[in-house]
Write a structure and sequence with these properties.
Layout lengths: L9 H14 L4 E5 L5 H5 L11 H6 L4 H4 L1 E2 L6 E4 L5 H7 L9 H13 L3 E5 L6 H9 L2 E7 L4 H18 L5 E8 L6 H13 L13 H5 L7 H4 L4 H19 L1
Parallel strand pairs: 1-3, 1-4, 5-6
Antiparallel strand pairs: 2-3
Helix pairs in contact: 1-12, 6-7
Length: 253
């Protein structure tokens, strides 16, 4: 889950798609790759200072299975938490050998050990070493795009990064999915942005959009994804539909 533009709904999308897939019976891991730890909070997992998680996997090469915690929202959902310590990893990794491949090596082992169906990386809004580790470990990128002006600018920058990573570090990486967020069908702007995104990324863009929703905005203050906070709300139903679309695409592949 990547987009260096902030405020587009990366964490909200990560936790809700992951929860929906887990509630649908799939085994899901969320790697909280952002020192703010918002994904850990939303999925009900402790990430107070000193909590073991993503930092130890990157810096000490500890197995993910050691520190992945079950989320109370579903027995099929596990989270590798991010404590504030992770903010130091960006600097500490600079002089480490194989620094770009730390997460990839850990994920390969975890997949073998756990039989997980989906792994989601919730990335910070930057293109530093934390995001780079996720891009090297991943095979697909899901980009949430806010239905507002300048939406495509962030994607253009991200595409440059993807192409650099493909050429040097991870040939398997592809932009597979785009999800329009904060969509308001009543405004011309939202419709115009959606048309523009679909014109440039027709195959990648999901049919379902995520609407602007008070319930989606409220859910994090209760430490919950909207999927479990208000499962019948329009925001929860939209994320459920998007998750089903993603799962169906995966089944076709």
């Amino acid at each position: 889950m990547a987009n260096q533009k902030g405020g587009v709904g990366k964490t909200t999308t990560t936790v809700n798609i992951a929860t929906a897939l887990a509630l649908g019976g799939l085994n899901v891991l969320v790697v909280d790759n952002d020192p703010q730890g918002n994904a850990s909070t939303a999925l009900g997992v402790d990430h107070s200072p000193g909590t073991k998680g993503t930092y130890e996997v990157l810096m000490d090469r500890v197995g993910i299975i050691e520190y992945a915690q079950p989320s109370p929202h579903s027995p099929n959902l596990h989270v590798l938490p991010a404590a504030i310590d992770l903010s130091a990893a960006e600097l500490e990794l600079v002089n480490e050998r194989g620094r770009e491949h730390r997460m990839r090596d850990a994920i390969i082992t975890y997949i073998e050990e756990s039989g997980v169906d989906y792994v989601f990386f919730d990335c910070p809004p930057s293109l530093g070493l934390l995001t780079l580790n996720a891009l090297v470990a991943a095979t697909e990128i899901l980009v949430p795009i806010q239905a507002e002006y300048y939406a495509l600018e962030g994607v253009t920058q991200l595409m440059r990064t993807i192409n650099r990573v493909k050429g040097n570090l991870n040939d398997d990486l592809e932009l597979s999915t785009i999800l329009l967020t904060m969509f308001d069908s009543r405004t011309n702007l939202s419709r115009e942005v959606a048309d523009e995104v679909r014109k440039h990324f027709s195959e990648q863009t999901l049919n379902n959009e995520i609407p602007r929703s008070v319930k989606i905005a409220e859910a994090p203050s209760f430490g919950l994804p909207v999927i479990t906070y208000q499962p019948k709300s329009i925001g929860a139903l939209a994320y459920q539909a998007a998750a089903e679309e993603i799962a169906n695409r995966g089944a076709e592949d």
